[in-house]
Amino acid sequence: MPARFLEPNQLYTPSSLDDLSFTSTSELSDLDETFCQARAVEALRFGLGMRHGGFNLFVLGEIGSSRHELVRRLVEEVRQKDVAQFDYCYVNNFQATDTPRLLLLPAGRGSRLRDDMQQMAANLGPAIAAAFESEEYRARTAALEESFKLRQERALSELGDELLGRGVALMRMPEGFALTPVKEGTKETLSKEEFEQLPDERKHELAHIIKECQVPLGQLLGQFPRWRREQHEAFKEIGREAIRSAAGHLFEDIRAAYLDLPDVLAFLATVEADVIETGDPLSDGRPEDPDSDTLRFTSTISVQRYQVNLLVDNAGSKGQPVVFENLPTFPNLVGRVEHEAHMGALFSNFTLIRAGALHRANGGYLVLDASKLLSQPYAWEGLKRALQTGQIAIESIGDIYGVISTLRLQPEPIPLKVKVVLIGEPILYYLLAELDPEFAGLFKVAADFEVHIPRSAANSSLLARHLATQARQSGLKPLTRAALERVIEHAARLAEDAERLSVLTSELLDLMQEADFHAGNAELLDRTHVEQALAARTRRADRLREHVYEAIQRDILLIATAGELVGQINGLATVMLAGFLFAHPVRLSAAVCIGDGEMIDIEREIEMGGPIHSKGVMILAGFFSARFGRGMPLSFNASIVFEQTYGEVEGDSASLAELCALLSAISAVPIRQNWAVTGSVNQYGAVQPIGAVNEKIEGFFDICAARGLTGEQGVIIPVSNVKDLMLKPAVVEAVAAGRFRVAAVDHVDQAIELLTGLPAGDADAKGVIPEGSMNYLVATHLLELHSLKHLPSEEEEKSKPKRTLHPKKAALKPPPKGKKKP
Asked: What is the gyration radius of the CA atoms in the chain, in angstroms?
């Protein structure tokens, strides 16, 4: 069966919106993106509604598939809007300040408690200072001081009277107390001279008495510190009573607003106890200057100590929260503890605890971009740990990985109940499922977004309505029927399939926005505006392609579009740069010599060829073995190369061209250079589809058009790629005018017939190939190469044994010259 030359109507499939009656998109009803994502919507509704653990979602979708918009809308639909929320607060733990306590309050009451505590702390200082400066407080402390002095003096007086009866006086000295003898019958102490004049016996008696009296004196003096401590405790109790009296009404006012919250009442009780204890200015002894009481208190009472850190304020929210975190770092997810610097040192406390996205989304939904999450250090592990434990534990990276920190705080963990939605490209989902054994247990629901849909009349109409909706939402001018049909045709081009439509609608919206710009002051967007937008888009990205085409035109890159050459053929290479895809012809050449059947891929040998390209070259060796190697050994070596390429070569779409070049090199039959070839082959010569077929045809067409179309140039493509054709108008017009050709083949034999003008030559039932055909010439030359390889060398000829002839035949053989006949 020969190759098929395609008709113009096979090169481009126009859109028809006959199912819709309209003149502009303003007449079309709205339609959201769910029309093409039924499978994904079903999975999303299931995952968002499932309340059991582990049923978090991973949304698989390509960029531009409206995945974020659809997730946002469905989450808003399914979230419960009447669910009561909580405010999350951290407060000081007065027993262990490094482990702040958690308070959960109904939404809106956290901010009220915070404000109440701030006001209370601000009022504490003046209230307690006024109590310490009151006449009652001063009178009580003065009376206590006087009572202590009287008790001390009374005890000393009683001891002095007792000692005086024994002839010893108790004397108060600057350095303490001393015992000295007195004159008998009087209270007058003896001078040193008078004591020396006493008899020795009296001296010894007095010394003994003084020694005995030192015991009760020491006992009495030993009681004074205890009495002082009792005095201090009494002073402190007076201070506590003063603080209790001054601050009690402040706490009573706050308690009245939180009688229904036992945890808050317990917190207020601990605050009040701490205020009474730490607010006592006499805790270290009563100061001499009464005016220092206020200074002592204000330095002891810390406003921060009694504050409430409102971590998450849900006062303004209704129902389940929905959080989209655009920067999912570890601290932004699980929270963090900040630090303050003071005099070169870092300090931290419970008021510096900050919430993360998990705190804000608790009880609702958290939506994250998978690629951003995975690119942040430790963020993925932190999210998994929170989901596995069911609680949010704020901790630093250093604490997790064993780095000792002197600023470590361990806030009480917060119970976590959240639905996490990860949005990412399919490759991320499959990599996580393969490499992370915990992933499947945490993200049990996959919502897979479609990229293409069948190009039926119904789907075209639905896509048209959706595009009209997007145009209205973006504030664009209405599109005419012709303009909308052109946008849908471009959707087929994006899908690389004339029978399918791309639903990456962000790309189509960009096109409509650009067309709106080119429409200027026009009331409607027409087809010409869409064409202008497409041309301008190509123009902006076309600089490098123009340089490549210019190099071909100037014969810097050698490409022949006419004539015949042996072992050389025009392949087609694609280049993707920043989203702009274009193609250009590239010369492929093959060389053959005597060998052992080795197929040398020069690109692979110099490490410029990718694995898929290397696989394609190895398949060529399989083709020669299958077709020509059954009856004889293959005694040739072949080398294949992309000429004038200086980057990596990848893909197998040139394997058909490489095979044709090899057949030409072996048979010495030249190839017509007016053709370019694309397609891959299997080991039996069947031609297989390739990608970017439209760009490849247009790339060769542009070069031929620049040199002048003769009607002989064309591109050979696989038959299976015919349904993908959505070629630009210039190519379609040239084919219609007979100035360019596109041929479709499904086997290498069809391609080689076009390229050489010779029949391929099918073997008959006996395996005989017709003479003059390509296969005959290839087989003949392979046989010649085999024969040449196995010709005996000169040494082998000399070493061969001489053949003995039959006696009769030997008699007929003439004698050698110079010898006599026997």
From this structure: 50
Query: 9 exposed, middle or buried (CB, 10 Å; 0-12, 13-18, 19+)?
Result: exposed
The tens digit of pLDDT for each residue in 726-750 reads 999 999 999 999 999 999 999 999 9
Residue 480: domain span: 17-32+453-540
Position 60 in a domain: no
Neighbouring C-beta atoms of residue 809, cutoff 10 Å: 8
Q: Which candidate, 654, 734, 743, places its Cα nearest to that of 701?
A: 734
- CA separation for the pair 448, 44 (Å, rounded): 9
Q: What are phi and psi of 432, to 5 degrees?
A: -65, -40
Q: What one-character-per-residue DSSP string does 395-428 give?
A: --HHHHTT---TT---PPPEE---EEEEEE-HHH
**Beta carbons of 477 and 87 less than 8 angstroms apart:** no
Q: Which amino acid type is present at position 512?
A: M
Would residue 580 count as lying in a domain? yes
Which residue is catalytic, options 66, 696, 728, 773? Answer: 696
* Residues 189, 240 within the same domain: yes
Contact between residue 642 and residue 555 where contact means Cβ atoms under 8 Å apart = no
Say yes or no to pLDDT of 798 above 70: no
Which of 278, 304, 330 marks a domain boundary?
304
Maximum Cα interatomic distance, the chain, rounded to a whole number of Å: 189
265 and 228 both lie in a single domain: yes
What sign has the CA pseudo-torsion 414, 353, 419, 59?
A: negative
Do residues 450 and 503 lie in contact, with contact meaning Cβ atoms separated by under 8 Å?
yes
Q: In this structure, what CATH number is given to the domain that contains residue 385? A: 3.40.50.300
Residues constituting the chain? 822
Inside any domain, residue 55? no
Residues 729, 760: contact at Cβ < 8 Å?
no
Q: Is the pLDDT of residue 718 over 80?
A: yes
Is pLDDT of 284 > 60? no
Residue type, 573: A
What is the signed CA dihedral for 385, 391, 393, 397, rounded to 10 degrees? Answer: 10
**Spatial separation of the C-alpha atoms in residues 511 and 21, rounded to whole Å:** 23
Chain segment 30-84, per-residue pLDDT in tens: 998 888 888 999 999 999 999 898 999 999 999 888 899 999 999 999 998 888 8
Phi (first) and psi of residue 662, to 5 degrees = -65, -45
One domain, residues 606 and 733? yes
Let me know the angle formed at the C-alpha of 574 by 570 and 580, rounded to the nearest 5 degrees.
Answer: 145
**Cβ(451)–Cβ(503) below 8 Å:** yes
Residue 547: Cβ within 10 Å count: 10
Residue type, 17: L
Q: Which residues pair with 637 in a beta bridge?
A: 593
Catalytic residue among 653, 667, 680, 773: 653
Q: Are residues 284 and 357 in the same domain?
A: no
Question: Which residues on adjacent β-strands are paired with residue 182?
Answer: 189
Q: Is 696 a catalytic residue?
A: yes
Give the three-class secondary structure for 299: helix
Q: 3-state class of 609 per DSSP?
A: strand
Query: Does the annotation count 789 as an active-site position?
Result: no
CB-based contacts of 458, cutoff 8 Å, min separation 6? 19
Q: Which residues contact 279 (CB under 8 A, 6 or more apart)?
A: 124, 128, 239, 243, 247, 297, 300, 301
E runs forming strands in 166-272? 168-173, 176-181
Q: Report in angstroms the alpha-carbon separations of 565 from 18, 20, 721.
A: 51, 54, 27
Which residue stretches of 283-369 are H helix?
A: 292-300, 330-334, 357-361
- Domain's final residue, options 279, 304, 329: 304
Phi and psi angles of residue 258, each rounded to the nearest 5 degrees, phi first: -130, 30
> Residue 27 belongs to a domain with what CATH number?
1.10.8.60
Gap between the Cα atoms of 164 and 186, Å rounded: 9
311 located within any domain: no
Contact 562, 670 (CB under 8 A): no
The model scores a pTM over 0.70: yes
CB burial class (10 A; 0-12, 13-18, 19+) of residue 157? exposed
